[in-house]
Design a protein that fits this description.
CATH class of the largest domain: Alpha Beta
Number of domains: 2
Shape: globular
Order of helices and strands: EHEHHEHEHEHEHEHEHEEHEEEH
Largest sheet: 7 strands, mixed
Number of strands: 13
Radius of gyration: 20 Å
Bound molecules: NADP nicotinamide-adenine-dinucleotide phosphate
Helix content: 25-40%
Length: 347
Amino acid sequence: MIKVGIIGATGYTGIELLRLLLRHPQVQITLATSEKHAGKRIDNILPSFSGATDLVLEELNDDAITSKCDFAFSCLPHQSAMKHVAHWYAKGLKVVDLSADFRFASAETYAQWYEPHSKPELLSKAVYGLPELYRDQIKSAQLIGNPGCYPTGAILSLVPLLKAEAIIAESIIIDSKSGVSGAGRSASVDSLFSEVNDSFHAYKVGKHRHTPEIEKELTKAAGQSVVISFTPHLVPMDRGILTTMYAQSQPNGPKDTASVLKILHDAYKNEPFVKIMPEGILPKTKEVRGSNRCHIGAVYDPRTNRIVIIAAIDNLLKGASSQAVQNMNLMCGFEETMGLQALALLP
Ligand SMILES: NC(=O)c1ccc[n+]([C@@H]2O[C@H](COP(=O)([O-])OP(=O)(O)OC[C@H]3O[C@@H](n4cnc5c(N)ncnc54)[C@H](OP(=O)(O)O)[C@@H]3O)[C@@H](O)[C@H]2O)c1
């Protein structure tokens, strides 16, 4: 049994961690923080937890965290996270950070897309927490940079096709649609019901901060620099991301759908949480909602010689909190699937 702290427990990812970890057989949640609601019982402000916990929210205090916890999940915004994580790391806690602060090995890349990094010495200690790619490194890591929500589906889909030299790296276009919870729980005009409902729009075209995170992993897989076109969209749903990716098939690459699916299936046939859809079935966000799964489907279009790959995840789960628990399981030597076997909530 490990003693776990959830830092930023009242945000969307923190709430999901509470829900998952309260039922995890190897976890005791010893601390949960909120600045706005410190001193209140969790179930007073989040009635869905009535009868499930007596925990009272605390203000963020680094010394309290290091004395009460063996393991911490940081659900803080980027920049806030790095200062606190550095303190916990120095005291020997294992940490999964859900922000972007430890996703990059390069402080320069982080500074270019975010802001200057105040703890660059920690970047080389962190492991990128995508278990399907970095399982062995995660097992021995003390600090994990949990992947971003958009990158998770895109990287899982494209890495096997680049490694197999099936697609032309220069031709990749990624088009993603996310539910509104991707923006977090703090109020903003852009996420008001009247702004989002019955509408659909692109944003941050060509300059979204998840672009360099996707590019660094695709570059490693391709063995050459990969530059992508990435366009995110906001759709009027609570949660879920559907990512559609387009790439030209290599001259010697796959020329039918079955061959594309075989590459993906071979890459993930032993993975508990990545499922390749049979030919003719394409992923839907509803079919992964509430689960730690990534569903991937593909079609080869002979008219354009393009491969179209489609991935669905729940942004708050495989795109954030359940992936964080998958990382915790690996870091602590627990069964990787422990506490994560829920299937999708359908409809
Ligand atoms: N939402 C997603 O789909 C998603 C997916 C992947 C990664 N992420 C990343 O995960 C992190 C959390 O995201 P979220 O969507 O859960 O955010 P959120 O809903 O805005 O929640 C943020 C939490 O952090 C606390 N907090 C904010 N600023 C703080 C500060 N300066 N000091 C102490 N506590 C502070 C808030 O506490 P109060 O109760 O005081 O407000 C709240 O509990 C972010 O870095 C985000 O980029 C999010």
